[in-house]
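I hope you will forgive my troubling you with a question about protein structure. Here, with my thanks, is the record as I have it:
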Amino acid sequence: MELVLWRHAEAEDGVPDNARRLTAKGEKQADKMATFLRATLPHDTRVLASPAKRTQQTAQAFTNHFITDPNVGPGALPEAMLKAAGWPDSEDTVLIVGHQPALGEVAALLMTGRADYWSIKKGAVWWFSRRTREGDYQTSLRLVIAPEHL
Protein backbone atom coordinates (compact mmCIF):
# COMPACT_ATOMS: atom_id res chain seq x y z
CA MET A 1 0.00 0.00 0.00
CA GLU A 2 1.05 3.55 -0.71
CA LEU A 3 -0.24 6.26 1.63
CA VAL A 4 0.38 9.90 0.84
CA LEU A 5 -0.42 12.56 3.44
CA TRP A 6 -0.92 16.06 2.00
CA ARG A 7 -1.49 18.96 4.34
CA HIS A 8 -3.73 21.64 2.88
CA ALA A 9 -1.97 24.66 1.45
CA GLU A 10 -1.86 28.09 3.12
CA ALA A 11 -5.33 29.37 4.03
CA GLU A 12 -6.90 32.61 5.18
CA ASP A 13 -7.42 33.23 8.88
CA GLY A 14 -10.99 33.50 10.09
CA VAL A 15 -14.13 31.79 11.20
CA PRO A 16 -15.91 29.58 10.69
CA ASP A 17 -12.89 27.30 10.42
CA ASN A 18 -14.40 24.99 7.78
CA ALA A 19 -15.10 27.94 5.47
CA ARG A 20 -11.51 29.23 5.33
CA ARG A 21 -10.27 29.46 1.74
CA LEU A 22 -6.78 29.19 0.30
CA THR A 23 -4.79 32.39 -0.04
CA ALA A 24 -3.19 33.31 -3.37
CA LYS A 25 0.04 31.79 -2.03
CA GLY A 26 -1.89 28.68 -0.99
CA GLU A 27 -3.36 28.29 -4.48
CA LYS A 28 0.17 28.41 -5.94
CA GLN A 29 1.39 25.87 -3.36
CA ALA A 30 -1.50 23.52 -4.17
CA ASP A 31 -0.98 23.85 -7.93
CA LYS A 32 2.75 23.21 -7.66
CA MET A 33 2.32 20.11 -5.48
CA ALA A 34 -0.59 18.83 -7.59
CA THR A 35 1.55 19.03 -10.73
CA PHE A 36 4.24 16.98 -9.00
CA LEU A 37 1.72 14.43 -7.65
CA ARG A 38 -0.04 13.98 -11.01
CA ALA A 39 3.35 13.15 -12.58
CA THR A 40 4.25 10.76 -9.74
CA LEU A 41 1.15 8.96 -8.45
CA PRO A 42 -0.82 6.29 -10.30
CA HIS A 43 -3.87 7.52 -12.23
CA ASP A 44 -6.16 5.40 -10.07
CA THR A 45 -5.04 6.97 -6.79
CA ARG A 46 -7.93 7.16 -4.32
CA VAL A 47 -8.19 10.66 -2.84
CA LEU A 48 -9.81 11.38 0.54
CA ALA A 49 -10.29 15.02 1.50
CA SER A 50 -11.50 16.74 4.62
CA PRO A 51 -14.83 18.59 4.31
CA ALA A 52 -13.08 21.92 5.08
CA LYS A 53 -13.03 24.39 2.17
CA ARG A 54 -9.23 24.77 2.17
CA THR A 55 -8.68 21.02 1.85
CA GLN A 56 -11.32 20.75 -0.86
CA GLN A 57 -9.52 23.47 -2.81
CA THR A 58 -6.17 21.74 -2.28
CA ALA A 59 -7.57 18.40 -3.48
CA GLN A 60 -9.22 20.07 -6.50
CA ALA A 61 -5.81 21.26 -7.66
CA PHE A 62 -4.99 17.55 -8.10
CA THR A 63 -8.34 16.14 -9.27
CA ASN A 64 -12.08 16.70 -9.20
CA HIS A 65 -12.55 13.01 -8.37
CA PHE A 66 -12.12 12.78 -4.62
CA ILE A 67 -14.13 11.56 -1.67
CA THR A 68 -15.06 14.02 1.05
CA ASP A 69 -14.56 12.12 4.30
CA PRO A 70 -15.13 13.60 7.78
CA ASN A 71 -12.75 10.93 9.13
CA VAL A 72 -9.87 13.01 7.72
CA GLY A 73 -11.34 16.39 8.75
CA PRO A 74 -10.33 18.82 11.49
CA GLY A 75 -9.94 17.05 14.80
CA ALA A 76 -9.66 13.61 13.17
CA LEU A 77 -8.05 10.82 15.13
CA PRO A 78 -5.03 9.17 13.48
CA GLU A 79 -6.54 5.70 13.81
CA ALA A 80 -9.74 6.87 12.07
CA MET A 81 -7.70 8.37 9.23
CA LEU A 82 -5.78 5.15 8.72
CA LYS A 83 -9.00 3.13 8.78
CA ALA A 84 -10.58 5.44 6.17
CA ALA A 85 -7.54 4.91 3.95
CA GLY A 86 -7.63 1.13 4.41
CA TRP A 87 -4.14 1.09 5.96
CA PRO A 88 -2.29 -1.23 5.92
CA ASP A 89 -4.22 -3.85 3.96
CA SER A 90 -5.39 -1.95 0.89
CA GLU A 91 -3.52 -2.51 -2.33
CA ASP A 92 -4.35 1.01 -3.48
CA THR A 93 -2.46 4.23 -3.47
CA VAL A 94 -4.38 6.59 -1.20
CA LEU A 95 -3.87 10.34 -0.95
CA ILE A 96 -5.28 12.01 2.17
CA VAL A 97 -5.69 15.79 2.04
CA GLY A 98 -6.03 16.90 5.63
CA HIS A 99 -4.94 18.98 8.59
CA GLN A 100 -2.54 19.34 11.46
CA PRO A 101 -2.18 17.98 14.03
CA ALA A 102 -3.85 14.78 12.75
CA LEU A 103 -1.55 14.28 9.75
CA GLY A 104 1.54 14.68 11.93
CA GLU A 105 0.07 12.20 14.41
CA VAL A 106 -0.47 9.69 11.59
CA ALA A 107 3.13 10.16 10.42
CA ALA A 108 4.44 9.60 13.97
CA LEU A 109 2.23 6.53 14.41
CA LEU A 110 3.49 4.99 11.17
CA MET A 111 7.13 5.72 11.96
CA THR A 112 7.25 4.94 15.69
CA GLY A 113 4.09 3.00 16.55
CA ARG A 114 2.88 5.88 18.74
CA ALA A 115 0.82 8.91 17.78
CA ASP A 116 2.74 12.05 18.69
CA TYR A 117 2.77 15.67 17.54
CA TRP A 118 4.94 15.93 14.43
CA SER A 119 4.72 19.04 12.32
CA ILE A 120 3.88 18.83 8.62
CA LYS A 121 4.29 22.11 6.75
CA LYS A 122 1.40 23.67 4.86
CA GLY A 123 1.16 22.21 1.39
CA ALA A 124 3.75 19.48 2.13
CA VAL A 125 3.51 15.77 1.34
CA TRP A 126 4.70 12.78 3.36
CA TRP A 127 4.62 9.49 1.41
CA PHE A 128 4.62 6.09 3.15
CA SER A 129 4.80 2.56 1.72
CA ARG A 130 3.84 -0.71 3.35
CA ARG A 131 4.97 -4.04 1.96
CA THR A 132 5.58 -7.62 2.99
CA ARG A 133 9.11 -8.92 2.71
CA GLU A 134 10.08 -12.42 3.78
CA GLY A 135 6.87 -12.67 5.81
CA ASP A 136 7.40 -9.40 7.69
CA TYR A 137 5.57 -6.13 7.20
CA GLN A 138 7.75 -3.13 6.51
CA THR A 139 6.68 0.50 6.58
CA SER A 140 8.96 3.00 4.93
CA LEU A 141 8.96 6.74 4.46
CA ARG A 142 9.53 7.26 0.75
CA LEU A 143 9.36 11.02 0.45
CA VAL A 144 8.88 14.24 2.37
CA ILE A 145 8.65 17.41 0.30
CA ALA A 146 7.26 20.91 0.66
CA PRO A 147 6.00 22.94 -2.30
CA GLU A 148 8.88 25.43 -2.11
CA HIS A 149 11.29 22.56 -2.88
CA LEU A 150 9.66 21.66 -6.18
The mean pLDDT is 96. The helical segments are 24-40, 53-62, 78-85, 102-112. The beta strands are 2-7, 46-49, 67-68, 93-98, 125-133, 136-145.
